[in-house]
Amino acid sequence: MSNLDRQAELSVCGGRGFVVAEPVRELLSPRHVRLGESTEVRRLLPNLGRRMVGAWAFVDHYGPDDIADEPGMQVPPHPHMGLQTVSWLHEGEVLHRDSTGGLQTIRPRELGLMTSGRAISHSEESPRPHARLLHGAQLWVALPDAHRHVEPHFQHHADLPRVTAPGLTATVILGSLDGAVSPGTAYTPITGADLALTAGTETALPLDPDFEYAVLAMSGEAHVDGVPVLPGSMLYLGCGRTSLPLRAASDAGLMLLGGEPFEEEIVMWWNFIGRTGDEIARARDDWEKGARFGEVHGYAGSRLSAPDLPAAPLKPRGRVR
Predict the structure, then answer these.
(1) What distance in Å separates the CA atoms of residue 315 and residue 321, rounded to the nearest whole number?
(2) % residues pLDDT > 70 (the chain)
């Protein structure tokens, strides 16, 4: 999915200087961003308070939206570099096309994982016909330097491992959780899991104390380590935890995101992740010239143009603003 913000800012993320080494409860509020003609998303990362959680560098939550009489998601072809996109749905479908020839309809609780590597382009749209409701999350994972130039590829996994406890089903989207390992290719130690809680559940989820974590609230009423987390918000939890207390006042859906703190500093702008501002500028120029990122076939519409680069020079700011 694209970052459609026409005022996209250059920012430096990553590095261990601002990682919170102990457990915390830092509630992050979203920024509301228009995505195409009919979809509004709640952007949790990058955030005014925090830019990354492990290798997770971008988190959008959208819906549930009634799109019965609307076109739904319509994101024209756009480029990516240096990252993986993770598409995750609770309701609806998204049709993915990319410049490697990938064509896949992604349905609820199926993993759509696109590794951009050195360069890829793709589009996303609600198929015709489509379900009444659209609800999901779109996330990016930063690729480490050793793997950021890999060949672009797309993976789809409909059957994912689960961790269960009374009142809890945790679907492992990416990486590992409590011994269960996702079939999706991960390039850093990472955790991404969908948590479904039934009303009245009180339980604890085992965690890796070396990872930093956050929880995105998708639906329902839940308390995470005693903190009420409303849908569309995210609770940053820091490191040093061996378990996470969860309580559901109603049926609730959460996403657990975590991983080893990302050691490298990265430059993120628009839909690119690189290491320098010059690298980002070259990527933008290549996209505008129609070079390097390939072509998406089958989308009924024009591709996106890149916004202008900001005039201000790049200044490192670490993991938090």
Answers:
(1) 12
(2) 90
CA distance 234 to 34: 19
Closest CA to 217 of 30, 19, 56: 30
pTM (2 decimals)?
0.92
Q: Is the dihedral of CA 197, 199, 205, 210 positive or negative?
A: positive
Residue at token pair 């015709």: 128
Query: What residues form the annotated binding site for Fe cation?
Result: 78, 80, 122, 124
Helix (H, G, I), strand (E, B) or coil at 139: strand
Place of tokens 């061996």: 242
Token couple for 254: 């959460």
Sign of CA dihedral 243, 249, 250, 253: negative
Q: Phi/psi of residue 76, each to 5°?
A: -65, 170
Please give the annotated binding residues, written as ranges: 78, 80, 122, 124
Rounded CA gap, 276 and 227, in Å?
Answer: 38
3-state secondary structure of 113: strand
Of 3.40.980.10, 2.60.120.10, 1.10.10.60, 3.40.190.10, the CATH number of 22-259 is 2.60.120.10
Tokens 């994101």 -> residue: 75
- Taken in order 215, 269, 99, 126, is the CA torsion positive or negative? positive
At a CB cut-off of 8 Å and minimum separation 6, what does 288 contact? 305, 306
CB 150 within 8 A of CB 118: yes
User: Which residue shows structure tokens 């999901």?
Assistant: 136
Domain ranges of the chain: 22-259
Residues, the chain, total? 321
Tell me the C-alpha to C-alpha distance, in Å, between residue 304 and each of 110, 148, 253. Answer: 27, 23, 33
**pLDDT, tens digit, for every residue of 202-221?**
999 999 999 999 999 999 99
